[in-house]
Design brief:
This protein is of the alpha+beta class. It has 11 helices and 21 strands.
Length: 431
């Protein structure tokens, strides 16, 4: 066990963007999600508009700053509201100009924010962005959370969240599992107004997206960033891939996956390989258009990828609102897939994988089925992955079955096919 402070799992991802309402509505439609909560002028917040969407355990917030000239119109709640994120409107405007729609914060649930911040900054040399702060709802002082922020890479922060009540940790002989009781009953953070509508009457259907599987960053130098993160979190190396595993004949990358003890927080990091390559790596393309390091993609886990992708494709074709998926692999890929994976999948599953243009791979413990979107903004930067993991069941703290993190690996057998499809997508604007 290597974690320097207790990390329980992903809580949310926050994006900063130019129009939170428009972007959130697009993503909500594209992914079959619903609005969970919001903070904006209607809730007494004159610094930013933030719309939170989600399904099951996924929460994604989209935040846009209001013009600075309206922010002098303070009301009684302004100090409570802007204390939620320590929000700096000028910095948010600069972030959006620099990166476009991009991930600002990766939110993690931890056992104790105060202890985590102290350990990370004093012993781990982490860059403190926001000191531990008690977020207290101005309508109900019993509803509160502790939050702090640490620099991760580029302009992305690691946002740590904990309850103000004690946390209970249960350890089995093979796995360590942590649970916590929370006094906060809101959907996102204090001073956000929750949406009580479950979405059932709004014409939206749940596409089955269940949780955040992993969040991937692109950086110029893996070693420097990984060592920094390991130093202040204690995360361990979960997997590593080199250019020989990943690259095509034209370009390549190196990748390292970091994980917490529970292995339910997976943070892969990519760097470009430039030596002896014929063309610009997709990671270089990202770093140029994002103007520095940042989150490349978010993997969203589903328990039925066939249903999820069917619904995503149907939503896009019927309404024109949705995300394009990366081009399907070659016929040769599907012809050799059964010989590579054998009887780990059924004949019907192989047929569905081919019909939907999915990728599949396996390790010695489980199966991975995945597909990627094309970039979801106007820049060739941020995209999404939809993923299903099959197998790797372990006993949970109460005897129930749980799936081990990273089951089925990270699609090493698909890297070349995936990388080639991205290169094909970029061929019109990358030489």
């Amino acid at each position: 066990m290597s974690d320097k402070f207790g990390v329980l799992g992903f809580d949310h991802v926050e994006f900063w963007c130019g129009d939170a309402l428009a972007v959130a509505n697009t993503w909500k439609q594209a992914l079959g999600m619903r609005e969970l909560s919001r903070s904006d002028l209607s809730t007494g917040n004159n610094k930013f508009c933030s719309i939170v969407i989600g399904s099951n355990d996924v929460k994604m917030a989209f935040t846009s700053p209001y013009p600075t000239n309206i922010q002098d119109q303070h009301d009684d709640h302004t100090s409570d509201v802007d204390g939620v994120l320590g929000f700096d409107s000028a910095a948010a405007h600069d972030f959006i100009i620099k990166h476009g729609t991009a991930v600002r914060a990766i939110g993690l649930r931890v056992e104790d924010v105060h202890a985590a911040y102290e350990i990370a900054t004093t012993k781990g040399n982490a860059t403190g962005i926001t000191k531990p702060t008690l977020l207290q709802d101005h309508t109900n002082q019993d509803q509160n959370l502790l939050v702090c922020e640490l620099g991760l890479y580029g302009d992305v922060v690691l946002r740590l969240i904990s309850d103000t009540k004690p946390t209970t940790t249960t350890t089995t002989t093979t796995e360590s599992t942590t649970t916590t009781s929370s006094s906060f009953q809101g959907q996102y953070l204090p001073n956000f107004k929750d949406n009580d509508d479950d979405g059932s009457g709004g014409g939206l259907s749940d596409f089955g997206i269940a949780s955040i599987d992993h969040v991937v960053g692109n950086v110029p130098d893996i070693k420097q960033i990984a060592n920094k993160i390991i130093q202040f979190t204690g995360f361990h190396e979960f997997a590593e891939f080199t250019s020989e595993d990943v690259g095509t004949v034209e370009s390549g990358l190196n990748s390292l996956v970091l994980a917490n003890n529970l292995e339910n927080v997976l943070l892969p990091i990519n760097e470009p390989v430039t030596e002896n390559m014929k063309r610009q790596s997709q990671i270089e393309t990202y770093l140029i258009h994002n103007q520095g390091p940042g989150v490349q993609h978010i993997a969203l886990r589903t328990n039925d990828i066939f249903k999820t992708i069917d619904k995503m494709r149907s939503r896009l074709s019927s309404t024109g609102c949705g995300f394009e998926l990366m081009r399907r692999p070659s016929d040769g890929y599907y012809a050799e897939l059964p010989s590579r994976l054998g009887d780990k999948l059924t004949k019907e599953q192989y047929e569905e994988i081919q019909r939907l243009g999915l990728l599949a791979d396996a390790d010695d413990q489980g199966i991975l089925i995945q597909i990627f979107t094309t970039p979801v903004t106007y820049r060739p930067t941020l995209f999404l992955e939809i993923i299903q993991r099959i197998g790797c069941e372990i006993d949970g703290p109460s005897g129930e079955k749980e799936q081990k993190g990273g089951c089925g690996g990270f699609g090493k057998g698909n890297f070349r096919e995936l990388f080639k499809s991205i290169e094909d997508y970029e061929k019109d604007f990358v030489k």
